[in-house]
Each structure stands twice: as structure tokens, then as C-alpha cells.
Write a structure and sequence with these properties.
The chain has 224 residues and is of the alpha/beta class. It has two domains: 151 residues, Rossmann fold, CATH 3.40.50.1820; 48 residues, no CATH class. It contains nine helices and seven strands, in the order H-E-H-E-H-E-H-H-E-E-H-H-E-H-E-H.
């Protein structure tokens, strides 16, 4: 006798309240201000909804990532189609750096062993370094390795050259930030060329980009 599977569809069903609200905000912005409306990323992973919003004039898809988020924004430029621009704001996560590799070598090897054995969800504890501040964290081996593998998907230097052609790219960092030692410029220069791309250093360090760089970011976005 074959096993039977019964599938029950919940009713009502649809988007969560947060997604509904996000879609509503974009539509209200279009009604009030007209197009174009700039959306930082696809507000919902539903091509029909995105296409409907684009038809109304929300035709600029810009992904902005701050600090660790800059790594994710750059990676998005590799794996997501239809992105118009990327803003890497105060990038700061460099798992390929010698200090990070040496400090987390044991944890990296342990995480790889867990994933290889099929135990990728097993928790791993490690000491994170955030701009000189240390903090003990606990995440799954899979999650940990996705961010700290020195040859993995979070490495900006590996992703930057693979960003899809036609994507405008803004790198903006504090001139006193650690990554402004030439590392940032090297990553920026490896991104496929675009006449609207821009490399900017502002006053201060890692946490000062919002203060000194926000007007630069707004001006750049408006010129896209």
C-alpha cells in the first residue's frame, strides 16, 4: 500500500504584514511623487509583484549594504539579475585577511568538518572582532562558514570582479578606516567598469560614513 500525502492549504494565505506594508509604501510613493521611485532591493521575492511595481515606475533597484552588509550587497551583484546599482558603505568584513584567518583557523576547520559530515546546523561558538571590539557569538556551522570562509561567498575581493555588467557601483568609506589602506581601492578597481561608478573617501573612520557621506550617497543615487 502506497503512502499517501495530504497537502492542506491555509486560508487566508499570502504575504506577511511586513511585506504587504512594504508594497503599500512603494505604491503610495508612486501615487504621491510619480516615478522613478528608488527601491534598495527587491522588497519581496516574487517576480510578479516586482514586475508590477516596475511597470508603475519603480524601475531602479539599488542594493545598499553598510559594514558587513556591504559584503552581502556586493555578493547580490553576482547572483541577482536586474540590479541597477550597489552602494558599499563603510565595508569592513575581510575574512581573507591574515589576522582573521589565523584568529579563527580552528573554528573554520571545525565548521568545515561539521558541514562535510552533514551537521551544518550544529552550533559553533567563536570570538568576533568588530572594529577592535570583541564579542562571543554562537551560530550554526553553515552560517559561520558562509561569512568567515577566507575563500567563500562573503569575500569582497572574489565577488567584485564577478558583479554583472552594467551595474553602477559606489564605494564609500572613511579615510581613516582600516580598509582604506589600499584594500578598498583594489576591490573597487576590480569591479566591471561603469561610467557612473565612484570611489569616495570621507572624513573620519568606519562609523563616520553615515554622518559625512549620506549627502554624497543621495546625490549619486539621484544621478543614476
Amino acid at each position: 500500500m502506497k503512502n499517501e500525502i495530504k497537502i492542506l492549504l491555509a486560508s487566508p494565505r499570502g504575504f506577511c504584514a511586513g511585506v504587504d506594508r512594504a508594497i503599500e509604501i512603494v505604491n503610495k510613493a508612486l501615487d504621491k511623487h510619480g516615478s522613478p521611485v528608488y527601491v534598495r532591493h527587491e522588497i519581496v521575492h516574487n517576480k510578479q509583484v516586482v514586475e508590477d511595481l516596475k511597470k508603475r515606475g519603480a524601475n531602479k533597484i539599488v542594493i545598499l549594504g553598510n559594514s558587513l552588509g556591504a559584503n552581502a550587497a556586493i555578493r547580490a551583484g553576482v547572483v541577482i539579475n536586474g540590479i541597477d546599482a550597489i552602494v558599499a558603505m563603510a565595508p569592513g568584513h575581510t575574512p581573507e585577511h591574515e589576522f582573521t584567518r589565523e584568529s579563527l583557523d580552528a573554528e573554520i576547520r571545525y565548521a568545515k568538518e561539521k558541514i562535510k559530515s552533514g551537521n551544518e546546523q550544529e552550533k559553533i561558538e567563536f570570538e568576533d572582532f568588530d572594529q577592535g571590539q570583541k564579542k562571543r557569538l554562537e551560530v550554526s556551522a553553515e552560517n559561520f562558514l558562509s561569512w568567515f570562509d577566507p575563500e567563500g561567498k562573503a569575500v569582497m575581493g572574489l565577488n567584485a570582479p564577478k558583479i554583472k555588467a552594467g551595474v553602477a557601483f559606489l564605494w564609500i568609506a572613511g579615510k581613516d578606516d582600516i580598509i582604506s589602506d589600499g584594500t578598498g581601492r583594489k576591490i573597487y578597481d576590480s569591479v566591471p567598469s561603469n561610467p557612473k561608478s565612484k570611489f569616495v573617501h570621507v572624513e573620519g573612520g568606519h562609523r563616520d560614513v553615515r554622518k559625512y557621506g549620506k549627502e554624497i550617497i543621495f546625490t549619486w543615487l539621484k544621478a543614476l
